[in-house]
Amino acid sequence: MLNALFGSEARVKVINLFFLNSEKKYSLSQLITSLNIPLSPLRREIEHLAKTGVIREASPEPNDKKKYYSVNPDFILYPEMNALFAKTQILFSQNFIVNLQKVCQPQLLVLSGFFVNNPEAKTDLLVVGTVKRDAFVKLIKNLEKELNREINFTIMSEREYRYRCDVMDIFLFNILDGKKMILVDFINKPE
Questions:
Q1: CA torsion 107→156→97→108, rounded to 10°?
Q2: Residues 96-135: tens digit of each pLDDT
Q3: Beta-carbon neighbour count of residue 183 at 10 Å?
Q4: b vs e for 62-98, b when ≥16 Cβ sit within 10 Å of the residue's Cβ?
Q5: Residue range 69-88, pLDDT digits in tens
Q6: Do the Cβ atoms of 172 and 164 come closer than 8 Å?
Q7: Per-residue b/e over 33-55, b at no fewer than 16 CB within 10 Å?
Q8: pLDDT tens digits for range 8-29
Q9: How far, in Å, CA of 188 to CA of 191, rounded?
């Protein structure tokens, strides 16, 4: 069964895209653009994944003749595969953290949203500290390319963070009280 699921690099790219964007549906042309896989091999992988039940044909847009595909939440291994791909996001983020420390000095670094499978979150990444903005944005663009999705981020100075905590800022409260993963925290450590 695992060979059927993960038999080729192209198949892994397709599965990764569907599981990292499980709420979306894609046409073949969108998949070609997103994954940079030629039509013939892509079509073969889509047919194979549809046969195994990992993905399914999704309802088309009104007045649209294209076929659309989405991840199949009824697939028997969906929960396990979803957890697996969520964990790969963490591995991507660990590599990101190493590179991030080269362009900033985070006092607080929180993964939220996409990284912890919380689509309700307003941001995916909260960085509190001194940041070299141009280098940081370049790093984010590389991560977005690797993950094939947009990453929403929030940067705050330590002073702004403390002020927002003091006034009980709802945006910050929702991040800190919601589903998150704290990777660096030099601000909230007891002395």
A1: 30
A2: 777 888 888 889 989 888 777 788 899 999 999 999 999 9
A3: 18
A4: eeeeeebbbbbeebeebeebbeebeeebeeebeebee
A5: 999 999 988 888 877 776 67
A6: yes
A7: eebebeeeebeebbebbeeeebb
A8: 778 888 888 888 778 889 988 8
A9: 9
